[in-house]
């Protein structure tokens, strides 16, 4: 296992004219951690990644690799492996030459470079394709070559910019698993950029949710999903209902807490018996229902007109098919799944 | 045949005839020189009454013509060697810079190809005179490079637009400095465009007469300059022989480059 390094991002700011791409971002990444920068397009996640890579120079702030200041270090001196969104393979070289390239630049002896490149290709399951041209590879194979090229020189840090966005769904899921396994084998500090929430949840040790150049929340996937600290995070991470405390009725009759409440669509049940005594209930008129294969999605209009999404797993939804729009429906959620978003109103 | 063209027979015959006429119109003035060069007469006459190779002998036997030929070939090679790398670097920076700044630089860079040659030559004469470079091969080289850079840029700019810049970033992240990224990643992928740019720069220099007339001295006359001067002094079919050889050289060079591009 190679020695990986921690990264410190210290109040990094980057503006383009009046547009603030990074608004004093600070972030500590531990050695060997898999951290995902998650956010919609324009949130600053790629700018932050490119600043770490050395292609974007921050207006102010510092980037530290271990305790070394790399803010102004040339990209070729950072020893950071990068996987680009479009892979950026060199089409005039074959697979082996692409993977050998960083070793050749480091003046590794030819035979040794070749052996290491072949070993790395085997690690990403591309043995036998060393002599292929890049043009003759499928998208998934190109992805693996890009991975091999980024790890063959044993960088201390790996950056990945939406590496799976060009692949189809099944391949993407396979690669998510493989990239994570590769990370665990190598123990290399990895910063992964994506706009796909599921991908972030599946792959990461921690997720940093970004919006408009700021980090909204940084936490484990489970806490990001269940305990969002802002309304933006709550809504970005999944089908979230955000309601005023007065809109729900506590089953045990006590008062609800203050601040806006978040209840995820899939936290609801239609059967009160499935929810404990300290759950909440929410009554509304059924506006629409949709069968989505593994579940039903019901849209309820509660008093005041707010629409609530209720997602019932198909296995527990025997009654859903018979529900008619306009009908009154009560949905129940266990208290543990009702999260008060700190300092926010519905 | 492309679908855009009319399908009926008459239209197709008309189209082909028109194309043939254009070709003849373009080629004839060049080709007419060929029989002239094989004439046995002392005068330029068409068609020649008798044929000989005497004007080729005159050309190859003349130290003056041979010196001019050598000067032209050396100058063409040097021009291409200097102008193409400079043009490539200029195009890379314009491509990266983008926006109005890049357009401004592009405008400035392309002016030598827009300004009338005679103006450029007069201006260059004064600039070079101030540096005491009039009459030197270096002075002519400067003039030719100025003319060849826009030619190289016109070929290279569109090729760079299609180039995926992420590859350069990838190379940099993998440990390449700028020189290695350009030499190892950009140049090999642009080699066809670079080859065209080199040929065009070489031909620009080979063809150039105005700057040479103003700036070159007697000893380092280029072939076009000497041809103009000899036309003024005496007219004999040596000019035709040189023109024919010239045409052959250019056609061969263009053919080689074109065929390499195809393969």
CATH superfamily of the largest domain in chain A: P-loop containing nucleotide triphosphate hydrolases
CATH superfamily of the domain at 63-235 in chain B: MetI-like
Might you state the CATH topology name of the domain at 63-235 in chain B? MetI-like fold
Give the tally of β-strands of chain B. Answer: 0
| Secondary-structure-derived class of chain A | alpha+beta
Poorly predicted runs of chain A are none
Query: What is the strand tally of chain A?
Result: 18
Structural class of chain B: mainly alpha
The radius of gyration over CA of chain A amounts to: 24 Å
Described by the principal axes of the CA atoms, the overall outline of chain B is: globular
Strand order of the largest sheet of chain A: 6-7-8-3-9-10
**Per DSSP, what share of the residues of chain B sits in E-state strands of 2 or more residues?**
under 5%
User: What percent of residues of chain A are in strands?
Assistant: 25-35%
User: On the 0-100 scale, what is the average pLDDT of chain A?
Assistant: 90
Mind telling me which CATH architecture of the largest domain in chain A this is? 3-Layer(aba) Sandwich
Distance between the termini of chain A: 49 Å
CATH hierarchy, class of the largest domain in chain A? Alpha Beta
- Rg of Cα set of chain B: 22 Å
What is the highest CATH level, the class of the domain at 63-235 in chain B? Mainly Alpha
* Element-by-element helix/strand order of chain A: EEEHEEEHHHEHEHEEHHEEEEEEEE
- The H-and-E topology of chain B, N to C, reads as HHHHHHHHHHHHH
Short description:
Chain A is an alpha+beta fold and 346 residues long. Chain A has helices at residues 45-53, 95-105, 110-123, 139-151, 169-186, 197-203, 221-226, 231-236; strands at residues 7-16, 19-29, 34-38, 60-65, 68-69, 80-83, 157-161, 189-194, 206-211, 214-219, 240-243, 249-250, 261-264, 280-291, 295-302, 307-313, 328-333, 339-340. Chain A is elongated.
Question: What report would you give on this structure?
Answer:
- The complex is a heterodimer of chains A (346) and B (263).
- Chain A has helices spanning 45-53, 95-105, 110-123, 139-151, 169-186, 197-203, 221-226, 231-236; strands spanning 7-16, 19-29, 34-38, 60-65, 68-69, 80-83, 157-161, 189-194, 206-211, 214-219, 240-243, 249-250, 261-264, 280-291, 295-302, 307-313, 328-333, 339-340.
- Chain A has 346 residues and is an alpha+beta fold.
- In chain A, the strands form four sheets. In chain A, strands 6-7-8-3-9-10 form a six-stranded mixed β-sheet, sandwiched between helices.
- Chain B is mostly helical and 263 residues long.
- Chain B has a domain at 63-235: Orthogonal Bundle (MetI-like fold).
- Helices cover 78% and strands 0% of the residues of chain B.
- Chain B has 13 helices and no strands.
- Chain B has helices at residues 9-31, 33-37, 54-61, 63-97, 99-114, 117-130, 137-161, 166-173, 178-189, 191-207, 210-215, 223-233, 238-262.
- In chain B, α4 (63-97) packs antiparallel against α5 and α4 (63-97) runs parallel beside α7 (137-161).
- The model of chain B has no long low-confidence stretch (mean pLDDT 88).
């Amino acid at each position: 296992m190679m020695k990986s390094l921690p990264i410190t991002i210290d109040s990094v700011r980057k503006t383009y004219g009046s547009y603030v791409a990074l608004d004093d971002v600070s972030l500590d990444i531990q050695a060997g951690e898999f951290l995902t920068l998650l956010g919609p397009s324009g949130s600053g996640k790629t700018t932050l990644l490119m600043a770490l890579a050395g292609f974007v120079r921050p207006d102010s702030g510092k980037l530290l690799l271990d305790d070394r200041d790399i803010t102004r270090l040339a990209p070729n001196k950072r020893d950071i492996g990068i996987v680009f969104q479009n892979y950026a393979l060199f089409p005039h070289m074959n697979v082996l030459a692409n993977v050998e390239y960083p070793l050749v630049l480091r003046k590794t002896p030819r035979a040794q470079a070749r052996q290491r490149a072949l070993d790395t290709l085997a690690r990403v399951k591309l043995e036998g394709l060393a002599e292929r041209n890049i043009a003759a590879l499928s998208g998934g194979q190109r992805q693996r070559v890009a991975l091999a090229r980024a790890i063959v020189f044993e960088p201390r840090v790996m950056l990945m910019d939406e590496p799976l966005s060009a692949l189809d769904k099944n391949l993407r899921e396979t690669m998510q698993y493989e990239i994570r396994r590769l990370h665990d084998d190598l123990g290399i500090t990895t910063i992964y950029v994506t706009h796909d929430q599921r991908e972030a949840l599946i792959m990461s040790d921690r997720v940093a949710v970004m919006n408009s150049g700021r980090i909204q929340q940084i936490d484990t996937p489970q806490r990001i999903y269940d305990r969002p600290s802002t309304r933006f995070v709550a809504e970005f991470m999944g089908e979230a209902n955000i309601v005023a405390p007065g809109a729900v009725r506590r089953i045990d009759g006590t008062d609800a807490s203050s601040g806006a409440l978040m209840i995820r669509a899939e936290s609801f049940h239609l059967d009160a018996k499935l929810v404990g005594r300290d759950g909440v209930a929410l009554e509304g008129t059924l506006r629409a229902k949709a069968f989505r294969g593994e579940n039903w999605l019901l849209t309820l209009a509660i008093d005041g007109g707010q629409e609530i999404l209720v997602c019932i797993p198909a296995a527990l939804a025997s009654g859903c098919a018979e529900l008619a729009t306009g009908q009154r429906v009560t949905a129940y959620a266990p208290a543990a799944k009702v999260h008060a978003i700190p300092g926010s109103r519905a | 045949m492309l679908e855009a063209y009319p399908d009926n027979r008459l239209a197709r015959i008309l189209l082909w005839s028109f194309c043939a006429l254009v070709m003849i119109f373009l080629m004839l003035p060049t080709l007419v020189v060929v029989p002239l060069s094989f004439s046995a007469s002392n005068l330029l006459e068409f068609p020649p009454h008798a044929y000989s190779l005497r004007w080729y002998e005159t050309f190859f036997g003349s130290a003056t013509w041979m010196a001019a030929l050598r000067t032209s070939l050396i100058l063409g090679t040097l021009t291409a060697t200097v102008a193409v790398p400079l043009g490539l670097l200029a195009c890379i920076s314009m491509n990266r810079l983008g926006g109005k700044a890049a357009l401004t630089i592009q405008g400035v860079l392309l002016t030598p190809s827009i300004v009338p040659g005679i103006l450029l030559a007069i201006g260059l004469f004064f600039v070079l005179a101030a540096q005491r470079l009039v009459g030197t091969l270096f002075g002519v080289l400067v003039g030719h490079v100025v003319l060849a850079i826009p030619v190289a840029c016109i070929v290279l700019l569109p090729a760079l637009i299609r180039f995926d810049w992420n590859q350069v970033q990838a190379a940099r992240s993998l440990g390449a400095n700028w020189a290695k990224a350009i030499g190892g990643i950009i140049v090999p992928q642009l080699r066809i465009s670079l080859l065209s740019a080199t040929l065009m720069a070489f031909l620009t220099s080979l063809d150039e007469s105005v700057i040479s007339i103003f700036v070159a001295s007697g000893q380092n006359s280029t072939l076009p300059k000497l041809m103009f001067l000899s036309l003024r002094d005496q007219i004999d079919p040596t000019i035709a022989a040189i023109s024919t050889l010239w045409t052959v050289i250019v056609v061969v060079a263009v053919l080689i480059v074109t065929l390499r591009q195809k393969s």
